[in-house]
Amino acid sequence: MALEDQVKGKFDEVSGKTKEVAGAATGDAKLEAEGKAQGLTGKAREALGDLKDKAEDAVDNLKDKFDKKD
Prior knowledge:
By secondary structure, the protein is an all-alpha fold. Helix content is 94%, strand content 0%.
């Protein structure tokens, strides 16, 4: 799941940047704003994926520590 969030996040970032640039180039403020919003959403989703990875790693480390005590 974390990888999926990271990939979708990166896709949204790239798509958003494309819209942002296209909006700026054509003078379409709405498209530019949509692009900025999509890019921010992508960054947030990617950060969520990173956070999930770190949480999974922390849980795995705890499991390993408890397994070694047995």
